[in-house]
Amino acid sequence: MPKHGKKYLAAAAKVDQNQLYSPEEAINLVKETSFVGFDATIEVHLRLGIDPRHADQNIRTTVALPHGTGKTVRVLVFAQGEAIQAALDAGADFAGSDDLIARIDKENFFDFDVAIASPDMMGKVGRIGRKLGPRGLMPNPKSGTIVPAEELPRTIREVRGGRVEFRNDKTGILHVAIGKVSFTPQQIAENFVALMDAVKAAKPSGAKGTYIRTVTLTSTMGPGIPLNPSLAQGLALN
């Protein structure tokens, strides 16, 4: 068992692991139990009633968080011709064609968080899939990162404004960042509701039994706070 420091133990003592908290209680607690000296990230962990061994039960989709994650998202765009300048004008950090592909391939350039591509570029981008794929950076239609050139500006603005991709891990758990400890409780709650709605909408038809089994809210290095799954799914904001 790893040994925890005094600050963690003091924070953990505020959380009753035998209690299932309401979303409102958990949001207040996650702010109260963050003890690190920086603006910690708040994450939601959901254990789902899916079988990740079956491809049709795996979840990979996106959610538009009303208040973003609090993190600056660096966007790279694979495009050609006039679409390159349009992407840069829309806020892309990097945009290009063969030059960017060569830079990633030869220089191992990965100073970006999301890669977006127009369909006509995928033949070329596929050549560096072995490098982008393992890092979760390969453009993919399921994550909304392969879009027609005319839709690139809108997609870039959405990604920079708070659209995040999420997928289950090999054990059927989702780990999704929904903001920072510095966010107001209302902002955290609104992002939380958006995520829960997206998760419910993504339920695979093959999933049997209880779909959302456990919900946990936590901050960077902070203790996990167990939520009542029914209340978590039913939270409605005015």
Automatic annotation (TrEMBL):
Gene Ontology MF annotations: rRNA binding; structural constituent of ribosome; tRNA binding
Annotated InterPro entries: Ribosom_uL1_bac-type, Ribosomal_uL1, Ribosomal_uL1-like, Ribosomal_uL1/biogenesis, Ribosomal_uL1_3-a/b-sand, Ribosomal_uL1_CS
Protein function: Protein L1 is also a translational repressor protein, it controls the translation of the L11 operon by binding to its mRNA.
GO terms under biological process: regulation of translation; translation
TM spans (from-to): none
Keyword tags: Repressor, Ribonucleoprotein, Ribosomal protein, RNA-binding, rRNA-binding, Translation regulation, tRNA-binding
Subunit and partners: Part of the 50S ribosomal subunit.
GO cellular component: large ribosomal subunit
This protein's name: Large ribosomal subunit protein uL1
Family matches, as Gene3D superfamilies: 3.30.190.20, 3.40.50.790
Family: Belongs to the universal ribosomal protein uL1 family.
Annotated source species: Oscillochloris trichoides DG-6
Record-linked SUPFAM superfamilies: Ribosomal protein L1 (SSF56808)
